Amino acid sequence: MVTLKGENIYLRALEPEDLDFVYIVENDEQIWEMSSTQTPYSRFLIKQYLEHAHKDIYEVKQLRLVICSNDDAVLGLIDLFDFNPTHNRAGVGILIAEKESRGKGYGAEALELITNYGFTHLHLHQLYANISEDNGTSIKLFEKKGFNKVGVKKEWNLVKETYKDEFLYQLIYVH
Fold it and tell me: Which end of the chain is more exposed for a tag (fewer CB within 10 A), N or C?
């Protein structure tokens, strides 16, 4: 795989050693809202997922990469999902796991790396992101990286008995 290295971080493929990290992230109820998760994942299921993580994006329509600092600390995950080679588009999602690591530019750098990868290596025409109306941090990040708000899905997600709007952000590649 192409090395996805920035100034302060790099992106790498999932490894079997990431089991504990992915298990903790996927079972953190505070982020279930962002991922539309409803139930916990077992270590067994996550182990199976990691065993198949090497599969090609053209086969599984997803690419999940680990965000690491230059000193090899695991910071988070970034995904291309709903990859559609017919229409040359994919969704993008990002998570910096630890609150102490947020606001330091790691997310912006990871988003820039995956965006460049998507446009140059996967020949995508566009990337999109679905962001909850109250996720100001993600809204600010995606807007900073050139994504435009193109739509509102009214009362899209039910969270703790309250319906929340979800914003659709899009970045179209300009040649």
Answer: C
Q: Is 54 helix (H, G, I), strand (E, B) or coil?
A: coil
* Neighbouring-strand partners of residue 114: none
Q: Global pTM?
A: 0.89
- Integer angstrom CA distances of residue 154 from 37, 95, 141, 159, 166: 20, 24, 22, 13, 7
- What are the tens digits of pLDDT across the range 137-158? 999 999 999 999 999 999 998 8
What tokens appear for 149 in the block?
């708000």
- Helix, strand, coil % over all residues of the chain, rounded to 5: 35, 35, 30
DSSP states of 24-65 as a string?
HHHT-GGGHHHHT--S---HHHHHHHHHTTTS-HHHHS-EEE
Domains along the chain with CATH numbers: 4-124 (3.40.630.30)
User: Kind of pairing, strands 89-96 and 126-132?
Assistant: parallel
